[in-house]
């Protein structure tokens, strides 16, 4: 199964973000047959509670993946969660946003700024400005209309949801203003490998359309129980939403700190019963250590692959199945940074206590930079965003994108090449590269060539980049 998180590169390429379509027999229940008017009233009331808080989000974003800095507008959805203008959307909707325009339910328009974003859970918090009509009224000396008058939606308790419940998915598919559709919850605790290590997902029988990303998933009480985020490519009957209790916790961190602060242990976990790997262990306590990152707090504590972690800071953990892992990862992520905590582990049938001192997890994304004359973009190596490159070079810069055709491509450079030096000057940070690039371009008498030392596939290579050719944008 291939999952897509739309709005990442270009609007037409989005294949995610969720609207929910009625399944073939979606309204065939006995209750709906016996009294369809009651069912329609319930749906209408639920819709009316949230629909006015639905917004269309249209950010202009930067894209460095094609070997040059490009900007384009993409579309997504969001939901206002407070009358003073705070709204929730997806991280991938507003990632690298330069500006954000917002369309309200009643047709008014405003701009928004990012308060904070969390790539790990694909949640972002934005703050809306006053609608255009309000600003016009103030300038004309009329009665002031503040952002505090905005309609807002209320979160429900996603932990109380059960499979088979009716839900409404709201958003702006393909940018078509407002849309609401009906479906059911197919699963309330779906584990999606590689999508988020800190959250399970709500699965609905959703028909996926680009532009629905960040819109609310609403129960029949008119409460937001999820933020629609993922779907299967080309449409279908599977859509996925971040549960509201996860969103609520992330939003609090973003409002308080403009970021979500997590502890890092370097421990990667595996359930006791792993059907995919065909591994099963006796007992119902603990969670297995699948791997330990090099130079991590877990390695410093002496934790090894195959250890069974029984408790963290005195709190017992149980990782029977994949669905248990995100909660344990969250427990580890919430540990106080820099403070030692007892880790009770079992190894070879013997129990022992290890002292684990987590570190604050840094940025998941490195910075970007465009080397326009060289027709390539570069990015800072990041411990969490590019762990494979970080394994080789702890501080450095790698080639993020190569323009075709272009000078970097002509020189034989490739994406993910690590730049060790340029004309003999060591490149350890993005600022090092900026300075070298600037001095090279301002050297009027120098030949338009540079020598790059590259690390690729465990080996060092030398390349000469000739940049005398100018390629049109």
Describe the structure.
The chain is α+β, with helices and mostly antiparallel strands and 473 residues long. The protein has 3 domains: 1-261, Beta Barrel (Thrombin, subunit H); 266-359, PDZ domain (Pdz3 Domain, Roll), CATH 2.30.42.10; 368-466, Roll (Pdz3 Domain). It is built from 10 helices and 33 strands. The strands form 7 sheets. Strands 27, 28, 29, 30, 31, 32 and 33 form a 7-stranded antiparallel sheet that branches. A hairpin with a 4-residue loop joins strand 8 (109-118) and strand 9 (123-128).
What percentage of the residues does DSSP assign to strands (E)?
35-45%
Number of strands: 33
Summed up, the domain count is 3
Structural class from helices and strands?
alpha+beta
| Average pLDDT level | 86
Major beta-sheet overview: 7 strands, antiparallel
CATH architecture grouping of the largest domain: Beta Barrel
CATH class of the largest domain: Mainly Beta
Supply Rg. 25 Å
The unreliable regions are 6-33, 136-146
What is the CATH third-level topology name of the largest domain?
Answer: Thrombin, subunit H
Shape: flat
Binned, the helix content reads 10-25%
């Amino acid at each position: 199964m291939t999952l897509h998180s739309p709005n990442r590169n270009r609007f037409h390429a989005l294949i995610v973000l969720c609207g929910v379509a009625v399944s073939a027999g979606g309204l065939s229940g006995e209750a709906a047959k016996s009294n369809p008017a009651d069912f329609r009233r319930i749906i209408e009331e639920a819709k009316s509670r949230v629909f006015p808080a639905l917004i269309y989000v249209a950010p202009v974003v930067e894209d460095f993946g094609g070997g040059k800095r490009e900007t384009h507008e993409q579309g997504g959805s969001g939901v206002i969660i407070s009358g003073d203008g705070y709204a929730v959307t997806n991280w991938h909707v507003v990632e690298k946003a330069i500006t954000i325009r917002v369309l309200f339910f009643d047709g008014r328009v405003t701009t928004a700024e990012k308060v904070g974003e969390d790539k790990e859970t694909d949640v972002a918090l934005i703050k809306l400005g006053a609608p255009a009509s309000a600003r016009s009224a103030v300038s004309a000396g009329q009665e002031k209309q503040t952002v505090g008058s905005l309609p807002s939606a209320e979160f429900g308790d996603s932990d109380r949801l059960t499979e088979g419940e009716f839900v409404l998915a709201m958003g702006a598919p393909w940018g078509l203003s407002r849309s609401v559709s009906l479906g059911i919850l197919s699963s309330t605790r779906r584990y999606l490998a590689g999508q988020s290590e800190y959250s399970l997902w709500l699965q609905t029988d959703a028909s996926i359309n680009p532009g629905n990303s960040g819109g609310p998933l609403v129960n029949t009480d008119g409460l937001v129980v999820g933020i629609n985020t993922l779907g299967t490519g080309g449409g279908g009957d599977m859509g996925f939403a971040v549960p509201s209790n996860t969103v609520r916790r992330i939003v609090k961190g973003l409002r308080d700190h403009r970021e979500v602060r997590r502890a890092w242990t370097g421990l990667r976990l595996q359930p006791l019963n792993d059907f995919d790997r065909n591994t099963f262990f006796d007992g119902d306590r603990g969670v297995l250590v699948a791997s330990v990152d090099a130079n991590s707090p877990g390695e410093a504590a002496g934790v090894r692959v195959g250890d069974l972690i029984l408790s963290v800071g005195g709190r017992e953990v149980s990782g029977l199945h994949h669905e248990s892992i995100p909660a344990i990862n969250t427990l580890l992520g919430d540990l106080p940074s820099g403070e030692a905590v007892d880790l009770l582990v079992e190894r070879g049938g013997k129990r022992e206590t290890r002292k684990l001192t987590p570190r604050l997890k840094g940025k998941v994304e490195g910075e970007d930079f465009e080397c326009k004359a060289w027709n390539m973009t570069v990015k800072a190596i990041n411990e969490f965003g590019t762990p494979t490159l970080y394994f080789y070079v702890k501080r450095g810069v790698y080639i993020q994108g190569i323009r075709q055709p272009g000078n970097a491509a002509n020189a034989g450079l490739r994406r993910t090449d690590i730049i060790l030096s340029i004309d003999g000057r060591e490149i350890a940070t993005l600022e090092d590269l900026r300075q070298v690039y600037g001095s090279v371009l301002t050297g009027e008498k120098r030949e338009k060539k540079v020598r790059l030392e590259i690390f690729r596939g465990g080996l060092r290579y030398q390349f000469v980049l000739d940049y005398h050719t100018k390629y049109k944008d």
